[in-house]
């Protein structure tokens, strides 16, 4: 049983580092859209994207500290973030506002899928603290997705 728990813990740590990478990448993309959004809804979207970016940013340290509390190492460089994230880069500065919204919705949905997939790992590893945090982080991502989805309706 100890081997199964050890394996589950290692898998959970790997996914926590992936989640950390996703948050870094989503923060950068959301700030990018905050800086480059244009059009008649500029003010509202500029403020919403900044609000979302700050919420994502504030989770970064919590995720990294969770990895450290599990006596493991976190990501150490931009290269490690790039290797571990599921969030795709977006370098265009001319995307339409609707395309930015749709892309952030897809990215938050990707994040939600990762978070929900981690629940079983936390349970298998016997990590109640991570399990509870996953619920909170999922709720936050679902709220961001709801706001973005509502803008596209």
Question: Please, could you describe this protein's structure?
Answer:
This protein is mainly α and 153 residues long. The chain has one domain: Ferritin (Up-down Bundle). It has 5 helices and no strands. α1 packs across α3.
What are the salient characteristics of this protein?
mainly alpha; Ferritin; 5 helices; 153 residues; 80% helix
Structural class by helix and strand composition = mainly alpha
Morphology:
elongated
Order of helices and strands: HHHHH
**Distance N to C terminus:** 49 Å
Rounded radius of gyration (Å): 16 Å
Largest sheet: none
Low-confidence stretches: none
CATH level-1 class: Mainly Alpha
Oligomeric organization of the protein chains: single chain
Q: Please tally the helical runs, counting DSSP H or I stretches of 4 or more residues.
A: 5
On the 0 to 100 scale, the average pLDDT is: 96
Question: How many separate domains make up the residues?
Answer: 1
Under the CATH scheme, the architecture is Up-down Bundle
The share of residues in extended strands comes to under 5%
Kindly report the name of the CATH homologous superfamily. Ferritin, core subunit, four-helix bundle
CATH topology-level name: Ferritin
How many β-strand runs?
A: 0
Fraction in helix: over 70%
């Amino acid at each position: 049983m100890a081997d199964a728990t050890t394996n589950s813990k290692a898998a959970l740590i790997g996914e926590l580092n992936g989640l950390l990478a996703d948050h870094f990448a989503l923060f950068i993309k959301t700030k990018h859209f905050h800086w480059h959004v244009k059009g008649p809804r500029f003010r509202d979207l500029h403020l919403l994207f900044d609000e979302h970016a700050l919420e994502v940013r504030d989770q970064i340290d919590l995720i990294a500290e969770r990895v450290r509390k599990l006596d493991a190492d976190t990501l150490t460089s931009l290269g490690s973030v790039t290797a571990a994230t599921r969030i795709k880069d977006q370098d265009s500065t001319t995307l339409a506002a609707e395309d930015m919204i749709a892309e952030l919705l897809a990215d938050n949905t990707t994040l939600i899928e990762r978070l929900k997939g981690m629940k079983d790992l936390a349970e298998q590893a016997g990590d109640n603290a991570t399990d509870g945090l996953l619920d909170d982080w999922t709720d936050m991502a679902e709220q961001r997705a709801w706001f973005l989805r509502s803008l596209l309706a």
